[in-house]
Amino acid sequence: MASLNLDRCINIPEDYEGYQTSLFCIPNHYEDSVGNVLIPYGMIQDRIEKLARDAFYDMLANGREPLHAICVLKGGYKFFSDMLDKVNSLNSNHSEGSVQVSVDFIRLKSYENDQSSGEINIIGLDNLDCLKGKNVLIVEDIIDTGRTMKKLLNTIMKYNPKSVKVACLLRKRTPLSSGYIPDYVGFEIPDKFVVGYALDYNEYFRDLMHICEISQHGINKYKQ
Fold this sequence. Notes:
By secondary structure, the chain is an alpha/beta fold. It has helices spanning about 40-60, 75-95, 115, 145-155, 215-220, and strands at about 10, 35-40, 65-70, 100-110, 120-125, 135-145, 165-170, 185-190, 195, 210-215. The strands form two sheets. A seven-stranded mixed beta sheet has the order 1-8-7-6-3-4-5. The chain has a three-stranded antiparallel beta sheet with strand order 2-10-9. α1 crosses α2 (about 75-95). It is globular. It starts with 9 loop residues before the first strand and ends with a helix.
């Protein structure tokens, strides 16, 4: 499936096999549960640094207005934390100005009639009216079809934020994609089941630092 973001992210091709796990430090309890390392931790950090810089300079160009960053839990917490650390570093060391950042944390749950409403239940923000007039950055770990993100944006826009942008670490190429393209994308990956760097399978693998493809043995071992 062709990439939609060749000029905005690192595109990992379909035939990419990654690196042998023997070349990296993998927790013993996961050694038999993952395939190759698709994205090493160091490469993740380098890419996040660039995304943070892009977002930072976009906000400087926008009049240095404050940024309200929203983390989509649970999978997005490491990406969110690392990205904001890098934004804060730019704030502390940039001579041309800084961007004030506030944060919120949410979880998403579909309504029973989500197909008809096109909205999603946002857990964690007691009063969505607080988003009115703010520059919002939604930080998500991975976007598969994009349908959930579209529903989230549809819901948030009802509360009249000044602007809304989305940053995701991974965007998956899948035939089921709605075609949604986030504003900031770390990597575009093949349609594979990946874990690590807070991406989980039944709450496991969040403690794996690299992003790997889960093996069939791992799926069987940790299935519920």
